[in-house]
Amino acid sequence: MKHLQLVFLRHGQCQGGDILRGKTNVPLSEKGLTQMQQAFSRLVKLPDVVYSSPLERCLQFSDLIAKQYQLPIKVLDGLQEIDFGEWDGQTWQTLYQHHEAKITAYWANPWEPKHTPPLGEYTVDFSARVQAVVSQIIWQMLQPLAAEVAVDPTTVKSASTPSALIVTHGGVMRCIMAAILGVEQAAGIFNQFHLPYAAVFHVDVYVDGHYLEHVDQDTFAFNNLSVRLNWPGLSDLSQG
Fold it and tell me: pTM of the entire structure?
């Protein structure tokens, strides 16, 4: 049995004001960078690799950490936040002033296609994208094991626990949490997970060496793996 660990880190506070950020590309504020540095400093060990959303509020910190600790970094489009379409980048005040009923319905049940913002990404598609990219990350982390299993399927020699830091967005993290807990597509589920700026959670992934003999990258899927969510107590770093 091979044990991997994924460490998800949400970006910190951003510049740009009180807006709905999805695909809107804004940098971190000075406070936001400090929030992420503080969160990173509390990790038990350094990750082996950094994966990052390409949006600046994630990549700014990911690139900094990768250079500081000489870690490999991989930027994946699938780790981007959901695209809110015509609502993206608008202030909350404007959204509620002009679209209060629609935006209230969306947050109550974002899985319902008719609640999707105009030209926005369907939440079902977003969740599938997120699970696919996390599967891709796990698959890449397992390649050294796959080579080992090809030589001897009965033996897994490595006792280490490879780990990856995944710097991403609140929506991405909520999708993974919902999938792990088996509550995907539950109405209101995104409102139930409190993930402040620079929030962290860990996912332990367990893979049997024999399983790798029967799958390839196209058939390997996150929802077929044995996973455990570790969600420590979090301080609300977005306040104050």
Answer: 0.90
